Amino acid sequence: MLALILAVVRGETMPAPLDVGWSVLAGIAGGVGISALYQGLAVGRMGIVAPVTGVMAAVIPVAAGIVLEGVPPPLVLAGIALAIVAVVLVSRVSDAAGGRSGLELALLAGVGIGAMSVCIAQIGDGHVFGPLVVIRSTQALLIVALVLVTRSAWRVDRRLVPAVAGVGVLDMAGNGAFILAVQTGALAVAAVLSSLYPVTTVILATVVLRERVTRSHAVGIALAAAAVGCIAAGSAG
User: Fold this and answer.
1) SS3 letters across 95-129
2) pLDDT-based confidence at 91, cuts 50/70/90?
3) Domain that holds residue 15
4) Which tens digit of pLDDT belongs to each residue from 77-88?
5) How many domains is the chain partitioned into structurally?
């Protein structure tokens, strides 16, 4: 609803049929990706799920760029190598009491979000919130279908509605900013810079939830940050 209002306020025209198609694909990929991310954060360790998802979501658009535009600069290749090492380090669970790592959900989330980024990059310039309306509508239909098929509980506690609405607004704002970034710059740069969010997530997990970060996890998280930095710097160059 907010995206539709903003599209009208900005005076955006109706997206072209091709843009609608890419938006639908982005909605499906993003719906799968974000659902896997939330499930991973719920059942796994945030210090593992968030960085792995971020790295995968950054590497996939870069891989798409390699296929479409050729081999990237050496600094970008170095970043991809660091990303692979980071995935290995942050996926390690040293204590048996730590529970599930959530790695498989993190990988699925990263693939879905990365594919969404590639699809969004195909949307024509000048359309931001119009495509977001299509993306969000597609995701809503996808979630409704999943609820009906799996017969999952879907009612939200009234006390949580403001927080859930806040998440929706922030997520929509982030997607809108990402579309603008892709339209004004390179996909790889926008993707890797947006993937820096795990730094905030891990800090909050440590401070608020008191999650323990092992030495290997800390090194992996640092390498993940270095990886996205290298990819961004190399792509910008």
Assistant:
1) CHHHCCCCHHHHHHHHHHHHHHHHHHCCCCCCCCH
2) low
3) 2-153+160-236
4) 888 788 878 777
5) 1
